[in-house]
Design goal:
mainly beta
Length: 232
C-alpha cells in the first residue's frame, strides 16, 4: 500500500513505443503492430470507466483510480498480497486507471505491459496485524508488522490494487465524484473519471492484491521480514 501529487490524465497515458523514421517496409509492419497496441489501450481505457459502476453495484462502495502512484515508477508486474485484521483511515479516495511496467518486462505477458488497477488513497491510516507477501516462485518473501500494542501507521498512503475485499464502512461518503475534484486525500485523477471519497473508512479483514504501494510516512512497529512457504 504513498504520497501522490495532483495528476493530469496526460501523465498516465501510455505512449506509443518507438519513434524515428524506419524504412517503408518496417514502417508498414510497425503501423500494424502499433494499431493493435493502441486498440488494446483504448479498450483498457474504456474498462476504467466501466469498472467503478460494477463495483458499486456489488455493494462495497469501492472506487477505481487513475494510477496515482503508478505514474511515478514502472511496476515490476509481480502482484503482492496485503492483509490486515483492521484498517482505519481518515481522508479516503478511490478512482481507477492503468499501471505500466518497464519496457520489455518479462512479466508483461499479453497485457502490453499494463495493469488495470483500483487506486485507494488515504490521508492517515492505521493497520492492525499487517502482512505482506510476494510469491518468488517456490517461496514467499513475507513482511509482518503491527501485531503488538503498536499499530502500523501511514500518511498519504496509496495502493494500486486489482482485488480488494473486507467488511467496509465509510463516513460521509460521496459517490460519483469527478476524479479531478477530489479533496479528502492528496490524490486527484483526470477530469471525467468516476470516483468516490469519504471522511473516514473502516475495513475489517482487509485483503488486497496490489501492484504498487507508496506512503509519505510508513511506520511498521515489530517489523519482521522472512522467507516462508506460506503467503499472507
Amino acid at each position: 500500500m504513498a504520497s501522490s501529487p495532483d495528476l493530469s490524465s496526460a501523465d498516465n497515458t501510455p505512449e506509443n513505443p518507438g519513434s524515428g523514421s524506419p524504412s517503408e517496409t518496417s514502417a508498414a509492419s510497425g503501423t500494424a503492430g502499433g494499431g493493435e497496441r493502441r486498440g488494446r489501450v483504448r479498450l483498457r481505457r474504456a474498462a476504467v470507466m466501466a469498472v467503478p459502476a460494477t463495483i458499486v453495484a456489488a455493494g462495497l462502495a469501492i472506487l477505481t483510480a487513475e494510477g496515482a502512484l503508478g505514474v511515478q515508477f514502472a511496476i515490476s508486474g509481480m502482484p503482492f498480497t496485503v492483509t490486515a485484521t483492521e484498517l482505519n483511515g481518515t481522508g479516503f479516495e478511490q478512482f481507477g486507471g492503468l499501471d505500466n511496467m518497464a519496457d520489455g518486462s518479462p512479466n508483461a505477458g499479453d497485457t502490453g505491459g499494463q495493469v488495470l488497477v483500483v487506486t485507494s488513497a488515504i490521508k492517515n491510516a492505521t493497520l492492525t496485524k499487517l502482512c505482506q507477501s510476494v510469491d518468488l516462485g517456490g517461496t514467499n518473501l513475507k513482511i509482518t508488522a503491527g501485531a503488538g500494542d503498536q499499530k502500523v501507521t501511514a500518511s498519504d498512503l496509496t495502493t494500486d490494487s486489482t482485488e480488494l475485499s473486507g467488511d467496509a464502512a465509510f463516513g460521509n461518503i460521496e459517490i460519483g465524484n469527478d476524479a479531478s475534484t477530489l479533496n479528502k486525500a492528496n490524490a486527484k485523477g483526470p477530469i471525467g473519471v468516476f470516483s468516490q471519497q469519504a471522511d473516514t473508512v473502516h475495513i475489517g479483514n482487509l485483503r488486497q492484491t496490489n501492484y504498487a504501494t507508496t506512503a509519505g510516512v510508513f511506520k511498521l512497529p515489530g517489523l519482521k521480514l522472512s522467507f516462508s512457504d506460506k503467503a499472507c
